[in-house]
Amino acid sequence: MFAQKRSHLLPGLKPTLGYTVFYLSLIVLLPLSALMLKAAGLTWQEFVTTVTAPRVIASYRVTFGAALGAAAVNALFGVLVAWVLVRYTFPGKRLIDALIDLPFALPTAVAGITLATVYSSNGWIGQIIEPLGIKVAYTPRGIIVAMIFIGLPFVVRTVQPVLEELETETEEAAACLGASRLQTFTRVLLPTMLPAILTGFALAFARAIGEYGSIIFIAGNMPNISEITPLIIITKLEQFDYAGATAIAVVMLVASFTLLLGINLLQKWSRRSAA
Questions:
Q1: pTM value?
Q2: Is 250 inside a domain boundary?
């Protein structure tokens, strides 16, 4: 008997693979290749001189340092927010759940102006914390605040589905076996949640590195103090220094890719440990 041919809604492997490669090449590979080719127009000495200028090095420290700090804060409080939204019922829950996605829809310029207004010396929050010696607006702290604002949804929306799939019976079983709440969380829940937390951390970190609009309004943009690398790239483009801008962009690209690759490897390790 002849085996019945299985029908599929989508075409076979070859057409779909071809479409996938073409689409990725058009959207991702071609722009990145153009970036590399433009930077290749510089000699090695010119490239090194451009990407290691003191002002550029300072911007690396500000950008990556603030992004790591903001992603770490989001990883902690994003899990807490996701936990509350999944495990508790309270008035206004749907509204709060909808507000989590606000940074996705809000234009970055609007977010930056709003944060700068709220945290300025006469803003709602700034007038309270500045007398205590905590200045946020137009300082490196403002960069972290902006990055936290735009990165929080990535952690919450990544961890939330995992928490929804966790059954409360697992926690009850751990409690019946004598585990404390801390032991239940660290030994039962955290291993399952860790890959999602790392994914949310990586997404928030990558988003923070490339953020521009919401940061420039609250950072102050002082060279060597609160100037981010994307702003230097924009400045060089305005000065028609396209080769210098692409050289710095290549460094950002390589650094981001290396960090994300490391986080992905860490995710695989955590999944194997939890299995």
A1: 0.84
A2: yes
